[in-house]
Amino acid sequence: EPEVTQTPSHQVTQMGQEVILRCVPISNHLYFYWYRQILGQKVEFLVSFYNNEISEKSEIFDDQFSVERPDGSNFTLKIRSTKLEDSAMYFCASSDLMKTGMKQETQYFGPGTRLLVL
Amino acid sequence: DAKTTQPNSMESNEEEPVHLPCNHSTISGTDYIHWYRQLPSQGPEYVIHGLTSNVNNRMASLAIAEDRKSSTLILHRATLRDAAVYYCILRVNYGGSQGNLIFGKGTKLSVKP
Fold first, then answer.
1. Is residue A108 predicted with pLDDT exceeding 90?
2. Residue A111: its chain B contacts at CB < 8 A?
3. What per-residue confidence (pLDDT) applies to B57?
4. pLDDT in tens, B18-60
5. Interface test with B, best of A102, A105, A113, A114 (most B CBs within 10 A)
6. What one-character-per-residue DSSP string does B33-96 give?
7. pLDDT exceeds cutoff 50 at B2
8. Which one of A17, B27, B71, B99 has the lowest number of neighbouring Cβ atoms within 10 Å?
9. CA distances (Å), B53 to each of A6, A21, B56, B62, B101, in order?
């Protein structure tokens, strides 16, 4: 069964450093998402991406964050200057086209990248 | 997306049915009810969704109240692998861009052998 993959599984970085988290969505999917989950807290939406542009973003997704689909398979999340509070599990998700114009598609999540900022 | 209310935790015995409730009294006529779950140290995983009628799939059943103000996710025979946090999420049904999922705290299900 196709699955979303993420690399690395764990990343440790120093505060102020840039990190890039990588995701390979399911191959025929066109919608991509990043979510994060701070330890012990809820899963929070960061950003969605379609047709090479951001379609929605949350308040968390400020100027320190950016997303890119550099080629036909990867989807990346960049944090320009990491802060301690960016420590979290970051999940990538992808979904297929909407069916019959209804927003009821299934989102498929990757296993996550655990980011620790020291 | 409208708000949902779920118990913080539930316990079940292995191989017994589990009924996970969700209240969504402010649901609108166009909201679908989705369930996802998150196994320990994994990403969320789709379970099932429905609008008005009860739904069944290989993972679970979804029973939706006639007034749609509540729903119940039913695991027919819980296994140890079903221990997870279960999230009930309402999603507005309208055209346009794909939408993000809004996760609450969910119900943490423990399954005892």
1. yes
2. 42-43
3. 92
4. 999 999 999 988 888 999 999 999 999 999 999 899 999 999 9
5. A102
6. EEEEEE-TTS-EEEEEEESSS-EE-SS-EEEE-TTSSEEEEEESS--GGG-EEEEEEEEE--SS
7. yes
8. A17
9. 36, 40, 10, 9, 22
